[in-house]
Amino acid sequence: MRDAYGLFTGTTLVEVLLLLATFFLCSLIGVERQVRQKSAGYRTHVLVGLGSCTFTLISAYGFSYVQEPGSTLDPTRIAAQIVSGIGFLGAGVIFKGRNVVRGLTTAASIWVSAAVGMACGAGMLSLAVSLTAFHLITLYVVSPAVRKIPTPDTNRVLHLGYADNQGVLRQVLELATSMGFSSSILSTKKSGDEDKPIVLMNIRFHGSVPLRELVPSLMEVPGVTSVTLLGADPNEDDDDVSS
Questions:
Q1: pLDDT at 242 over 60
Q2: Is 159 within 8 Å of 228 (Cβ atoms)?
Q3: CATH 3.30.70.260 in the chain, residues?
C-alpha cells in the first residue's frame, strides 16, 4: 500500500522503528566516544548510522513498486553509485592538522542529506521526514546535552610558565584556538629576576580532544619554559611535561 507521495506505506512503521533503533544504539556508541574525547564524537556516529540505515531501507523497500515479477530492471544500482560517490564528496571536507580532525560532522551531514534526497526520489517521503527530524534532534537537542557530560579533562588545569613581554601568551592562545580549545585564565603571578621575568599562569582549557594533545604543541612555542597538567583530584599525580 502506497499513497501518491509516499507519506504512508505498508512499511512506514517498520522504517521509523528501525530508524529509532539506529538512533538509540548509535547514540550509545557516540556518547562513549564523546566522553573519551575522540575525533569522531556523538554527532558523527549518530549521523553516519542514520544515513546508513536509511540507505539500507531504501534498497530494501524503496523500489519494490517499480519492479514487476520477472523484470530485469534494477534501480538500486543507481542508489549504490550514489552511496559510493557521496563518500568521496564527504572525504573532501575533512581536514586534519595539529592532531585535530575537522569536518567530520559536515561530512556526516552530507551523507545524511544524500540519504534524504534518495528517500524522496524513491517515494519514501515518511522516511525522509523521519530522518530529517532525527538529524535535527541529534544536532540541536541531544548533542548539546552530551557535551555537558564530564570528561577526564573537565577539571584539569594547565600550569604554564613563559617569558614575559615577548608576546608568548598571545601565541599560546592562538595555538589553542586553532586546535579547537577555548580557555579561561584562573590565576597569574610573576617570577624570576627583573632581567628575565617569568609569568606563571594557571589556565583551564575546554576542547573536544584530550588536553594532553595540546601540550606538545605548546612546548614548541618560543618563550614557553614549562607546561604542567594539574589533576582534578588532589591525590592524582601531576604530569610535568617540561622544566
A1: no
A2: yes
A3: 157-240
